[in-house]
Write a structure and sequence with these properties.
It contains ten helices and 14 strands. The two termini are 36 Å apart. InterPro entries: AAA+_ATPase (IPR003593), ABC_transporter-like_ATP-bd (IPR003439), ABC_transporter-like_CS (IPR017871), P-loop_NTPase (IPR027417).
Length: 289
């Protein structure tokens, strides 16, 4: 569905946001993971047709982004900073966006808007002006507008921002169902957002694609680098905090997990990494830490 070939993006004064990105995203949900500033939003804007690459080529369903009218109906996009019209109700806003997306029939728009208000759990607030909406409610309206018209390709940038834990789970499950026969690209810096729902992952770091593959492959990036040690409180306080990934108290001792190329502490034992530990290990190696 999405083909990216040697895409780079540079801004004024020669600052690179993306550097020679190549990837293919097919049917299903792929997580685009990376720390803030890695270039995720820049790549999302390019894929959504809102920015042009400095070099390289992108096609959606075989159609290049240089022919936007042909692919606009195929793409749904939720930007990281989603803006609403505060004087409009949620229902009227979605009806307006539906008409902009080509749903000309009033009956068709009404049915589609009502369906999506149910999907994002906003039926009871649909006739309120959006200036009264909480941040989470505005985010859910953003999700609904991205889904209007059932696009074949859905691009969502940090979509769980502002959602409470229950809504976050609801949204991730909704995306999983939606991706069964479509392409969904989910950008996030939160590993939990992709852990249960994505079948593939791509990791960006400082504008470069440093890993693309399965979640198991990302988890394996921590193999051979993750250690666990049982420390006294005194040893724990003296340890280098930059090495400690997580810690918990157990009686008179602290149980610590650390990432390091060599045994970081006397008595440390090598353990199997979790997904987040594999991700952090990959980033630290890129930073030569």
């Amino acid at each position: 569905m999405i083909s990216i070939e040697h895409v780079s993006k540079t801004y004024r004064r020669g600052a690179w946001a993306l550097l020679d990105i190549s990837a293919v995203f097919g049917t299903g949900m792929t997580g685009l993971l990376g720390p803030n500033g890695a270039g995720k939003s820049t790549l999302m804007r390019i894929l959504a047709g809102l920015a042009s690459p400095t070099s390289g080529r992108v096609t959606i369903r075989g159609i290049p982004l240089s022919r936007p009218e042909e692919i606009r109906q195929s793409i749904g996009y939720l930007p990281q900073n989603f803006q609403v019209y505060p004087q409009m109700t949620g229902r009227d806003y979605l009806d307006y966006i539906a008409s902009m997306k080509g749903l000309k029939s009033r009956k068709e728009r009404t049915a589609e808007v009502s369906r999506l208000l149910e999907v994002v759990n906003l039926n009871n607030h649909s006739d309120q002006k959006m200036r009264t909406y909480s941040g989470g409610m505005r985010q859910r309206i953003g999700i609904a507008q991205a889904l209007l018209g059932s696009p074949d390709v859905l691009i969502v940038d940090e979509p769980t921002s502002g959602l409470d834990p229950r809504e976050r789970v609801r949204f991730r499950n909704m995306l999983t169902r939606y991706s069964l026969n479509r392409t969904v690209l989910l950008s996030t810096h939160i590993v939990a957002d992709i852990q249960s729902n994505c079948h593939e992952v791509a990791v960006l770091h400082e504008g470069s694609l440093i890993m693309a593959g399965s979640l198991a492959e990302l988890q394996a990036c921590g193999r051979g680098f993750l250690w666990e040690a049982r420390m006294s409180h005194e040893e724990y306080e003296a340890a280098d905090p930059s090495l400690i990934l997580s810690s918990r108290q157990e009686g008179e001792h602290m149980i610590c997990r650390m990432i390091h190329a060599r045994r970081p502490f006397a008595g440390s034992v090598m353990v199997e990494p979790e997904l987040e530990e594999g991700y952090i290990s990959l980033l630290r190696r890129e930073r030569h830490v």
